[in-house]
């Protein structure tokens, strides 16, 4: 048992002599063993059902119909070759169709239960079943100042800073690149530096993306250097590729497909990303948007498994929502929560590792609108049990802006969401009949300082990092701050002090000699 | 079918000629029939399960044990008389215990499926099954300025203003008194004016409370005048009594019991309110807090049904949460969401109308913390299908402060929550295979302006009232407002113009001649 429990149980008299409040304070100061934490990465969701089992079957069958009867346009020759060899058909209209049996066979042999590695093994993730992990993502083009609301172009330095902040956050479990390095107009420099800045900023699992296989090839050389050799990289690939292989509806993105093929060969897990937008590039009917996303990701799965059976691929159903009045994206809408939750459930149906998005807001700044939109999305998508929840922190303006300080605000929302995923413990002990009896019939008539209360204080309750729970008087006396102000202060402290160094400076020198790294070595705290 | 659908379906050629955006704008301007709205009061929840069926059974059995073996202290003579006549036992330790069969019989004969009336019948609620309604509540002692964060004492005028704002909000379905009239130190004046200001500010169903049966007796006279006679009041009682009959753990509140008895006799529905605080006045183990709340409300139900079988009573399990480090309440915590969701499910188990709380925040102001805490609570408690969700708008600082402008922010969160409760329509038409086929094989390759998109625009999608979905550029050009600023502007407009007059000025004069009404008639827009 934990030392915390041991302490509390071991000194009941002392506790009651000293009073509950003092005892609770002493207890709170003690470090908590990982297994005793109220929440941990990868807890099991599944208590929210956007779809009932019969709905899931219907969506599956409709997706099979779409693939068999409509199929994909714009397949590249290597894709056509691999997929037709597996049983796909190139139709007279040029579309590649996928017979139902091919899709079902591909699902059966698909890679599942693969670990997503961190550079530090303590961050390894096991995202299958109904286990839930939260991470960032995005390709925001602006950084938002949370106080002034000013937008400016995002740079490589921002990406590194964001990764460093994520590295410190308990409830953000992986880092996928969040922002476009607009100071690096050359696509090769952008691709290489995006991967570099991400991997150097955090030892958590990283997702990145590439626009050209040649860029990926050189990035692989860098990753092998970082890992200490290709064999070590292949044993623990700590970067996955976010790959938009499909331009919805149902067209292959040709350059992305070439990058996908290289990733599969290079042992890099692929996030098969279908990001249609309901009412624009996907049906406005939510069920139809899920059907299309599932069909598109199933096609990607057939493709990957035709290249290499069992290659690790994430079922990345990310349907987005349009505000149908304007056609603009609305990532903070309630319809988004339903779509992403439903997608999490579809991955369960196939027993695949599912990725989806949650936690985008339409607000430009981290105000109450942002908090609200992020939280109802997370509560439902997280409790649906989606395995990998992308875009979960920092994102503003429906993917157009990223706010570094919002990461800390969102970390609190994610911690709370995780607590709801953990759920209610309903053991005999937790039902508390004996505790109630003792308090009412022979005790003090309240539960403050009781043995049960002290024991559960840290193991059952989550506390916010920057959320404020003071009384109005205390809060006013201490400066009446809002959560943005507290986030700014804490972010500055993190950025000043936290520089993970996953590789040695010597290896970094070797990388810099071979590749145009644009993040100054002096900025990296060495 | 709706005129919206008829229009869209009736002019496909015109639509495609004019372009999707213009057609969408024209459509948006048309009024929408109530039945075609994407959300309506009283939609069915139940898709989130904080408790599994076996957990619910365990909690039920534990609650029966608590009532049979521990029982209640401090019963008043009339309570002892009624309950022992029904089968309860006064034990030698002075506690009133409730045999399991008595509790089960009381549940069987309890009032269920009773309407909660508005003064205006369009606001009548049918809160049973898994139907969900959101309303306010609270006894906040301060009004918060959302811009400066300043706290000041709440007054009767504030209560009237809050009721008026609630009267205009689509997603707040009932009004329970939110704030204490601190300008009325006399308890009689406070009770009468609290009821008066609430009922005059909104024609939605009202909840109020009384500290003394004498105050309630005179309030009944007022309500009969307002209704047009006692018979009309009894036919459509539009005020329910929020009654804290229990001081947790398991002690009767004597004055509240006297008010309860009068309400039951007077045809006023009673909210049987058990508001223990986990870790302080209820067990720290969440399951135990639910057990205690259920036991307490079951005792209230036995009491009410011993007085008058079938009298309308709301099963008001409102367990709150302590921050166990300080003992202070934490209404915005994730543990709160689990407790309230579980309580909603317990009421389903008994087929009773359940009331619980959701949407309190610990933040002192409507910042991102407030938005986040409110939203994850609402998303889970609402989707659990709790029937009457109190404290759902405006509340700050864990019940110590109320922010009028936050009502508008929270109305957006509630609208979004309601959209998630409505869920995903999975009909053949919604699965959209034919739409996908037509768009991909013979259409424009996108869904903007398609017949399906236009038809679903207003019937399937909810739009925020003050939430902003503009692009960063447009938002910046239009003043870069945060949601608080927009809420302030809109609140001022409502308060300036909206004065419901549920009664005539002549009736009001009669009431004022009999009772010390402290809200100036001049302030009421007559």
UniProtKB/TrEMBL annotation, chains A, B:
Entry's EC annotation: 2.1.1.-
Region feature Disordered, mapped onto this chain: 1-40
Basic and acidic residues bias locations: 11-25
Source organism: Dongia soli
Alphabetical list of InterPro entries matching this protein: MttB-like_sf (IPR038601), MTTB_MeTrfase (IPR010426)
GO BP, one annotated term: methylation
EC category: transferase
GO MF entry, a single one: methyltransferase activity
Keywords: Methyltransferase, Transferase
Signal peptide residues on this chain, from the entry's feature table: none
Family stated for the protein in its record: Belongs to the trimethylamine methyltransferase family.
Identification of the protein by name: Methyltransferase
């Amino acid at each position: 048992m934990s030392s915390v429990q041991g302490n509390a149980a071991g000194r009941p008299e002392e506790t009651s002599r000293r009073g509950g409040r003092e005892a609770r304070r002493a207890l709170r100061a003690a470090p908590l063993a990982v297994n005793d934490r109220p929440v941990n990465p990868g807890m099991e969701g599944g208590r929210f059902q956007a779809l009932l089992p019969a709905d899931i079957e219907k969506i599956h069958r409709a997706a099979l119909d779409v693939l068999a009867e409509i199929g994909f346009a714009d397949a590249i020759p290597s894709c056509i070759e691999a997929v037709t060899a597996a049983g796909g058909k190139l139709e007279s209209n040029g579309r590649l169709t996928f017979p139902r049996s091919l899709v079902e066979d591909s699902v059966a042999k698909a890679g599942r239960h693969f670990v997503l590695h961190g550079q530090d093994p303590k961050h390894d993730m096991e995202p299958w079943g109904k286990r839930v992990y939260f991470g960032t993502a995005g390709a925001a083009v602006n950084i938002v100042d949370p106080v002034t609301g000013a937008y400016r172009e995002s740079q490589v330095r921002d990406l590194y800073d964001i990764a460093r902040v994520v590295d410190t956050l308990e409830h953000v479990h992986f880092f996928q690149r969040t922002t476009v390095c607009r100071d690096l107009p050359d696509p090769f420099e952008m691709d290489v530096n995006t991967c570099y800045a991400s991997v150097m900023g955090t030892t958590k699992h990283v997702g990145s993306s590439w626009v050209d296989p040649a860029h990926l090839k050189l990035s692989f050389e860098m990753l092998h250097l970082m890992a200490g050799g290709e064999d070590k990289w292949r044993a623990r690939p700590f970067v996955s590729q976010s790959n938009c292989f499909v331009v919805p509806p149902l067209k292959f993105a040709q350059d992305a497909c070439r990058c996908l093929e290289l990733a599969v060969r290079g042992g890099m897990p692929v996030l098969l990303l279908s990001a249609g937008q309901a009412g624009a590039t996907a049906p406005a009917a939510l069920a139809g948007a899920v059907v299309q996303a599932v069909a598109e990701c199933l096609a990607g799965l057939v493709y990957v498994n035709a290249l290499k059976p069992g290659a690790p691929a994430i079922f990345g159903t990310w349907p987005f929502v349009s505000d149908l009045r304007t056609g603009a994206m609305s990532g903070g809408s309630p319809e988004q929560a339903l779509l992403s939750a439903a997608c999490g459930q579809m991955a369960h149906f196939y027993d695949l590792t599912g990725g989806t998005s949650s936690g985008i807001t339409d607000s430009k700044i981290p105000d109450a609108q942002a908090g609200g939109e992020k939280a109802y999305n997370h509560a439902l998508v997280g409790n649906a049990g989606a395995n990998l929840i992308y875009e979960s922190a920092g994102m503003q303006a429906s993917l157009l802006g990223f706010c570094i300080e919002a990461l800390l605000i969102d970390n609190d929302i994610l911690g709370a969401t995780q607590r709801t995923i953990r759920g209610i413990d309903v053991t005999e002990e937790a039902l508390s009949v004996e505790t109630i009896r003792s308090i009412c019939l022979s005790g003090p008539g309240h539960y403050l300082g009781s043995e049960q209360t002290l024991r559960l204080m840290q193991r059952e309750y989550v506390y916010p990092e920057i959320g404020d729970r003071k009384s109005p008087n205390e809060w006013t006396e201490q400066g009446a701050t809002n959560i943005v102000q507290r986030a700014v202060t804490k972010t500055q402290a993190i950025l000043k002090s936290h520089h993970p160094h996953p590789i040695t400076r010597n290896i970094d020198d070797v990388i810099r000699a071979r590749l145009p790294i644009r993040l100054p070595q002096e900025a990296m705290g060495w």
